[in-house]
Write a structure and sequence with these properties.
alpha/beta; FAD/NAD(P)-binding domain; five-stranded parallel sheet
Chain lengths: 479, 479
Amino acid sequence: MRLVVIGGVAAGTKAASRARRVDPDLEITIYQEEPEISQSECGLPYLLSGTVEHRDDLIARTPEEFAEKDVEVLTRHRVEKIDPDNKTLTVKNYTTGEEFEDSYDRLIVATGAKAIRPSIEGVDLDGVFTLHFLSDSDRILSFIEERSPKKAIIIGGNYIGLEVAENLTERGMEISLLEAEEQVAVTYGPEVAEKVEEHLEEKGVAVFTGALVKALVDDGEGRVRAVRVMHSGEDAEMETELVILGTGIRPEVPDVALAEMKPEVPEVSLAEAAGAEIGPTGAIQVDKHLKTNLPDVWAAGDCVESVNLVTGEAIWAPLGDTANQMGRVAGTNAAHGEDILEFPGVLDTGLFKIFDLGVAKTGLSEDAAQEAGFEVVTASVESVSKAGYYPGGQSTFIKLIVDGATGRLVGAQIAGGNADKYVDICATAIWGKLAYPDLINLDLAYAPPFGPTLSPVIAAASVLAGEFEKKTEGVRARE
Amino acid sequence: MRLVVIGGVAAGTKAASRARRVDPDLEITIYQEEPEISQSECGLPYLLSGTVEHRDDLIARTPEEFAEKDVEVLTRHRVEKIDPDNKTLTVKNYTTGEEFEDSYDRLIVATGAKAIRPSIEGVDLDGVFTLHFLSDSDRILSFIEERSPKKAIIIGGNYIGLEVAENLTERGMEISLLEAEEQVAVTYGPEVAEKVEEHLEEKGVAVFTGALVKALVDDGEGRVRAVRVMHSGEDAEMETELVILGTGIRPEVPDVALAEMKPEVPEVSLAEAAGAEIGPTGAIQVDKHLKTNLPDVWAAGDCVESVNLVTGEAIWAPLGDTANQMGRVAGTNAAHGEDILEFPGVLDTGLFKIFDLGVAKTGLSEDAAQEAGFEVVTASVESVSKAGYYPGGQSTFIKLIVDGATGRLVGAQIAGGNADKYVDICATAIWGKLAYPDLINLDLAYAPPFGPTLSPVIAAASVLAGEFEKKTEGVRARE
């Protein structure tokens, strides 16, 4: 019995490990296009500042470690075609240039996502980079060592863009961040995004929201020398020596023309070409056992669509931890050849650090909750991350979003000290279908070095109780 | 309508504030025996090292601030008697020495707890202190300034004793900690307690468990000069200049002979004398609306017994955050004169820091779960508090305890980095009745500066899944 896994980052390696544990006799091969497997994309920005010193620190496991578990890993191998009827694969070996056929009994597609290179003029100039793989950070670091740029422009103000802004600032560079939307961190609520923008400015990053990049300007020798941008209704040219594209990633089922991938060109993906159903988010559609519509083909990780457990709608949530969790489910089911485990869905939880500010969300923002049809009640509090008298406390903003009909928590937005803790409390509470009266009495832990007497989650829930009282009084008054 | 609150720390002040918010016309008086109200007991150890610089930083609110909200606060006033039939109180003014009568329509008893002075020889010598109020820390700090002791012995290895050990060490003193039980942190599991003991020793604190204190030795001039102790079957005399009694606290309903209170002498409490039912834990018994058996008398905070939501049994859980939450319920209900809010109970969540180690628990330890009749399945993992490659990570031990019959989480024990976060996830999960399969797929937040890709809560839940598989296979094998 032969299991093939296409893709060797979070979902693929986890799936292979699980499959091996379930069935010691299974023949398992991982095909990985990049030279490394198990690389942490989330760690890449920290290589740019030297916070993480060695690139290899970002490689969690090597092909040799998998070989010890009798899992074959073939790097620099690209699966070019899946034939689901004959259960065969066409594979290209990048090192030798050879193409060959392989076959599978069961297949896991874990092809991940690729960085978008937007189709703007000058995007292929020297000095313009995306950051998605170790090979990208290698290129950026070589460029920085060679040219010692003083200025960089980051296009796109989401996770990668924000984290790169921090890390290049830490390196001593002068950073401008351009974001086309009216706020950075577009998947977060505006209150939180505003705090991020303020914090960036405090740390010396020039932030331009509503900034439309028109072109990257050639210095005449094939190098980028400026970014042409429309901002506040005016065209401007901003000088720079380095551009990082943080314009987002999209689900990727490997196609034959990666280098030409543009966000507006629908990609012809490996899985899609093989007949796999693609969902409304553009990622591969799977059932709750992470099975595709193709026989004996499962899919996991950033290439897969999930379910938002708050709305029940399809969502594309490409994150390393989710990929890992999906890999466990897909690997177990594929190894058994039957549907043992379910992946229930996600809450769209997110977390990042930008300089000294932790920022987090789970569930729906207020706007998203309204769009989803909830009658929304919210409460926000400003708190502090340690007891008031204990040194080193940091302020924290938290906003809870609840369903007015049931009182149930449907979302939280957090910025400041302990953001990582409070978001995990809220994510667990949403998972457990807790309503605000539960949160008020929740027996959370308290000690002065770790937070105020009452967790801001509890404090915000108490404010919610007041909002619900007002609402009830309003109803009574109208009656 | 007149509401009287007896006790002005966490529960009492919160209850009075809530009552004022509910009913602007209510006449409200707080009687407080100590000179200050709203003092943070949890902050007291940090005064001893200077981590918290000013004693007044530990006072959250003053009588003047309450006066602005039209709440009368009478400090250094002790309620000596409650007459529930006539709804009158006998009050003693400590400043004038006068005794007078007062009356109430509704009463909240929030008399808290008192430090135990064990009935051992020499316990009243100069240089022997408890630490429960600001007046205690004032006395200890005066003593330290006057005498500059180099050595101190702490009797009792629970919250206060451990935190004092840290803070006096930080001050440069040589500390020995004596604990009668076989481990410190007796309400925690042995794995966690062992890590605390190791950490204390690493930081230079000499820890003696199973150490029975026989007597405190007089230097001939009324000062303590040594502790006589039986340890490992042998009697020893340990020299010291200062002794802190961290021998625990007990629920307190003020009695007329505080100074003579001994743990083995049943205290005749104010509420008990008035006919209030005392529960099996020795604290005041209340219904879920925090009402006592006396007409129009509620009770809240450390003097009150609660329900352990995991076992359904009575539990005494004297903590500042719980007291605050109870105060909200009692204050609301007393102000309305009817039972509006419920206090559901507690999970026995706990958290403390000892030097660089965070230690936490929620729900039941493995032993407690077994005693409560659960068929227990557990899993422990060692993890790290940041992504492996991100600098500054700290190791973390986590043990999950689940009910074998349902798979539901019933407890967690944690020591190390992010202990405060992981315990709050687990407490919320227990509250939401989550089982281990929920925890495996839980959409917690991940970013490299805040934790490993998979939260150790998720990792431990995955180990639990393996334990349950083994169990199922074991059952099959026996069949």
